[in-house]
Predict the 3D structure of the following.
Amino acid sequence: MFLFNSLLSLFISIILVIYNWKENKNTIYLGGFLTIISIYSLTHYFSVFGDSAFLLAIFYGHFSPFMLLAGPLLYFYARGIIRDTYILKPIDFLHFIPATIIFIGNIPYYLTPFSEKLVLAQRIIDDMDQLKFAEVNFIFPITFNYVMRIISLMIYTLVSYYKIWKYRPKVKKSIPTQQYLLTYRWLNMFFITLIILLIAFGMITADFIEKTPKETYSALNLIQNLGGIMFLLLSGSLLIFPQILYGFPAYQVVTEEP
């Protein structure tokens, strides 16, 4: 399920950006968010269920800095569709600092010969418990990275959802009500589903820290399946309701003529 959902979401993300960025450039943020989540799920699949050292060596560790960009991209998307703008201010680049720090810590791993990464990947495939000792960042331990990803994305998700939840357009007439309601309801479903998904992954991460990876993934199979279903809902809803890709309609206050 994880492999299918991840590939589906990655495909939708690419299509979403290619065909919609001209009409609504905020889809770049949403597409980037879904792409990062898809890559995270693919890495999870190849680490736990896969049997290809080559694919695992490609995904493992290389994309970890981007995981901390998922939250900011989601926040930029939510803010952008409310304000009907996609432009970032200089202060917004502060959101990229955590990902930059992780990237710096990963530089030695990036410079490691691919042959050594293949050896590490094969060790993980042969013994899943090696995941707890496969350090790729010289600044932070692997458990810190896992916890930081979940906490960061949960904070950004809650803040973004709060912005969407309290948003009420100030209008009088000529409101494209149907488009607004459809988008608003989809966003509520999107964020609630995402919160459930993050809670599931948070439980897996907490168990991972306390136990061995083998114990974690054998004991939390139900939670993993729940996470897979939630992930499928996030991706599939974009196909069911393609109208929401254009965001909220542009509202203008209409004044009555004397």
Summary: The mean pLDDT is 81.
